[in-house]
From TrEMBL:
Name of the protein in its database record: Alkylphosphonate utilization protein
Domain Protein YjdM N-terminal: 4-32
Pfam families per the UniProt record, alphabetical: YjdM, Zn_Ribbon_YjdM
Protein YjdM C-terminal domain boundaries: 48-114
């Protein structure tokens, strides 16, 4: 897994560094390594899925593994699509409503952006 940040424009994980600049081969966006470091220092929280893609409110994600629900409520199966997520701070990063299960919280490490 690459230690380079994903492209801020298209969220591609295939960025590379050249002469102090980060470059995205997919969309052609270029940005300075210094600007990327400053953006991380600003304290703005960035949520990433299991693949490293940046998540935003309203995105659609897919569950990447079976998740057993506490209290014997069943299991959310791998491949379940979750629409219109809301990102929050706390022990779970995503508030969402899953059809057949209702309102729940998920962690970003168990989802992948669609």
């Amino acid at each position: 897994m690459s230690a380079l940040p994903p492209c801020p424009k298209c969220s591609s994980e295939f960025t590379y560094e050249d002469a102090g600049q980060y470059i995205c081969p997919e969309c052609g966006h270029e940005w300075s390594a210094q600007a990327a470091g400053e953006a991380q220092e600003e304290g703005a929280r960035v949520w990433r899925d299991a693949s490293g893609n940046i998540l935003q409110d309203g995105d659609t994600v897919t569950v990447i593994k079976d998740l057993k629900l506490k209290g014997g409520g069943g299991t959310v199966k791998m491949g379940t699509k979750v629409k219109n997520i809301r990102l929050v701070d706390g022990d779970h990063d995503i508030d969402c409503k899953i059809e057949g299960f209702g309102q729940m919280g998920l962690k970003t490490e168990f989802v992948r952006k669609v």
